[in-house]
Design goal:
four-stranded antiparallel β-sheet; globular; homodimer; 515 residues; alpha/beta; Aldehyde Oxidoreductase, domain 3; Barwin-like endoglucanases
């Protein structure tokens, strides 16, 4: 029997590695107390101090400067989650997979899960007890037709309960949400000031982009502070009837934020997951009346009207049962909305519309007025069919602009304006004809490679839209970048595929719109 | 535009972290060339030097002593795979998911995949292009009824082609394989010397335990060297007609070894995956005649005869199409075989049988003779039904022991014998009655916690088997451990659940045996 084993503890050490939403523990391969190999194959360990413990995936370290044999290292997130000081003594145990993994196994085997199963799964995920591998297993098992509509309801409720719940104490709290995937689609930044100017309560919290070139929060950040504390958020909303804040600090349905780190790299976007993700956030945010925007087009998330209808019915089924008044609109998702793609360029479009600039992108203006009009009709005092003209009047009269400035000031206006990107490149048309297709996915990818949304000024400025005539040598769009490496990534990608299809007028795709 | 961007390369650095079969790259958060956040959400990067490149998951480092802003770190496996020196200059690119992920998505959506799809998937996995998340997605999608029998065939062929193929140049190359899950089931170490003593070619390569307390390779290692180079393996087999080596160095169907690191923590063991894993290894090892042992019992992998029959038919379907002559035997999987569980204790059992010790565990002896008899009947010169008595004669005459010693010497006998474990604890019976159940899973877990197979002497020594009368205070089994922490883990687990059920004779489970 070896020595040094009387006290089975290791000194805690923070290892400054961001392992992206997965708890990782680092154990030295020469640790004399715990046998690294024995733990590693079983994938996870439990790190305990007093009654406080976390689960973490184990990596074995062979470098004493990172973690010495008497230490246990934790990655940044795991260290924060444990919430202890460095150098405290911790114990290590074998971790059984979380109990709810049994439910995941039943889902893999094709079973229908109960409300209790979804509560157990979301609770374990919220506490970071799942490895990424386990999350992937759950997402795949639950993906593509794996959830029936009752399960989607259970899952929505369980996710909503995994974080905080906001209560606004008013009978009508409105919101609007797009299922995503369309570049430049910044209608929220126009809809919120219009609706708030009308006096309805619209406490809008948005996400940041994960793999797209901009989320509403990224774009609003060009103008104002978006990381508002819950108190600050309430103050802004009480004063202005609306806000445009980042939802992350509010801790609404945090499970979704964790799952998304696995879902996105896998390119998964199953309907059941989408409905539960969106509606759990709305429920947690205290929303009572909701417009959902489902764009349909060849490179949208919904490619066919029949898919969009199926999705609409799922939203309706769940909303009826969680007491959210819902309207679903099917919109034109054949191409990006507006011209700019990326935070700064999108802000330019939004401000042009708010200022009634004659050069403002008309598609962004029209879509925003229509959506705002539908929201306004949630107001019992607005006559059915009158929402559109009220919204247009609020915009045309400058009241929306005034409200936007008031919201910006209330959230905290950004002190220095962001300069345009130093690196620009025109992508040139190689064929005469008419623009018959713009690939939303490719435009998003190129803008992302150019540095959006991390570099606010990076992105794409579209010069041609569907139906526009083009000739050889004309620029289709301009790539904007701040960093040389990003600039090259974007140019290379555009060189492989510009994302544009040129043809003749009769090849233009049909529009599916219900709105 | 910032400086330092003319030369878009970083200095390569080896980071001594074992990330367990996943390539991980470490980038400093302050790197001025590549923007860590932009890469991280997309999950993987491509690291390139000249025409050589690998894919890796990205972790962001905020500690210059691990990786400085001008460096790119690679985890041990990733560094080895790239195969370059430290301090060479590498480029970093965004990595698209490997092409075959499209096929995985189609599988998730419920489609049937083609032979080409399986070739593409296994090739990408073999080259470490899949993250663990992606592997989990594939395994879950392919799990539980997700593969039809043609797909299992395609998958088997693709996995066999992912590594080396052995060719023995003889018409009859025999092997025996158990689907696993039964503690102490070390029949291979008896069957190989019996069959080789008869003169048949049995070049047996085995795995090490991943999450069980011992694999044949771990146990044989108590007696001899098992890490044989391909040349050495051939020399041993040519001389002795058989070997008991670790299959890892032979690089047979390596995809399976990679997938298992994800499969085991998820507790997945789908039939299709099992059949393809086992048969791809056999095909790669040049096996022509094969016995598959399927134990059936309440805590076996196959719990019911109908499951075992379904599995048998899958093995038959694939073997008929890859030209392997197959016999499937259904065996008693109600309890562990022999007494010892863990490398050293299992070796003791095996040597007792080889030496015809009257105390030798009779179940291990009987099962080994029966299986060996079935293998011997693959010999055209052995009359049907005579295999058993020939095998028994080889064992009783001491020829099997002589052959085992010859194989040990050929592989390289271990110089120092392994001492018994210093820490021992008897687990006591708390009830009078008869042993009516022994939970294979719990016995495996306890033995594993005790330190097996890493600590050769650790494990469990069973003192009572099914049907044995027991009284209060009698020991059921002894836990053996080398390390104090492991000893405590095992005792705690046994305290929660000994794995034994005590009852009356009529409660003994029925045996399903076809053999």
């Amino acid at each position: 029997m070896k020595q040094n084993q009387i006290q089975d503890t290791l000194r805690l050490r923070r290892v400054a590695i961001d392992t992206y939403k997965e708890n990782v523990a680092y154990l030295n391969g020469d640790c004399e107390i715990y046998r690294a190999e024995g733990f590693q194959a079983l994938s996870k360990i439990k790190v305990t101090i007093n009654s406080n413990s976390i689960l973490a995936v184990l990596n074995v370290v062979h470098d004493d400067t990172i973690v010495s044999p008497g230490e246990l290292g934790l990655s940044e997130q795991a260290f924060e989650q444990l919430g202890e000081e460095e150098a405290v003594l911790v114990r290590v145990d074998h971790a059984e997979p979380p109990h709810s993994i049994d439910a995941v196994r039943r889902k893999i085997a094709g079973e229908r899960l109960s409300a209790e199963d979804y509560i157990a799964i979301t609770r374990d995920i919220a506490k970071h007890r799942y490895s990424k591998t386990e999350m992937a297993a759950f997402l795949v098992a639950a993906g593509e037709n794996g959830l029936d509509r009752d399960e989607i309801l259970y899952y929505t409720l369980a996710m909503a309960d995994s974080g905080k719940r906001l209560n606004w104490g008013e009978p009508v709290v409105v919101d609007k949400h797009c299922i995503g995937g369309i570049p430049g689609n910044r209608t929220t930044m126009l809809l919120v000031p219009i609706v708030a100017a009308h006096g309805m309560l619209i406490p809008k919290t948005s996400s940041r982009a994960i793999t797209s070139p901009a989320g509403t929060a990224d774009t609003m950040e060009v103008l104002a502070e978006v990381n508002l504390s819950p108190d600050r958020l309430h103050t802004v909303v009480r004063k202005e009837r609306g806000c445009l804040a980042w939802g992350g600090t509010a801790m609404l349905a945090p499970v979704d934020d964790i799952l998304i780190t696995v879902e996105r790299p896998l390119g998964m976007d199953a309907m059941g997951q989408m409905v539960a993700s969106i509606l759990s956030k709305k429920l947690a945010a205290g929303v009572t009346h909701l417009i959902i925007d489902i764009p349909v087009g060849p490179s949208s998330k919904m490619r066919h009207m029949r898919q969009a209808l199926k999705l609409r019915k799922l939203f309706e089924f769940v909303c009826d049962r969680i007491n959210i008044q819902l309207e679903v609109v099917i919109t034109d998702g054949r191409q990006p909305v507006g011209r700019g793609v990326g935070p700064l360029l999108e802000v330019r479009d939004v401000m042009q519309v708010l200022r009634n600039d004659p050069d403002a992108p008309q598609d962004l203006r029209q879509k925003s007025i229509r959506l705002a009009g539908r929201v306004l009709e949630f107001d019992p005092d607005v006559r059915g069919g009158h929402g559109y003209s009220i919204a247009r009047d609020i915009l045309d009269s400058g009241r929306a602009l005034t409200k936007m400035q008031a919201i910006i000031d209330a959230q905290g206006a950004r002190e220095n304006s962001i300069p345009p990107a130093p690196l620009m490149h025109d992508v040139i048309c190689k064929q005469d004809g008419v623009v018959t297709g713009i690939d939303n996915l490719q435009i998003n990818r190129i803008a992302r490679m150019a540095g959006a949304p991390m570099d606010k000024a990076a992105g794409i400025d579209l010069l041609k839209k569907l139906g526009d005539p083009v000739t050889v040598g004309e620029p289709l769009y301009t790539i904007h970048a701040e960093f040389r490496a990003d600039y090259n990534f974007a140019l290379n990608l555009a060189r492989k595929d510009t994302g544009y299809t040129i043809g003749s007028t009769e090849e233009l795709p049909a529009t599916y719109v219900e709105f």
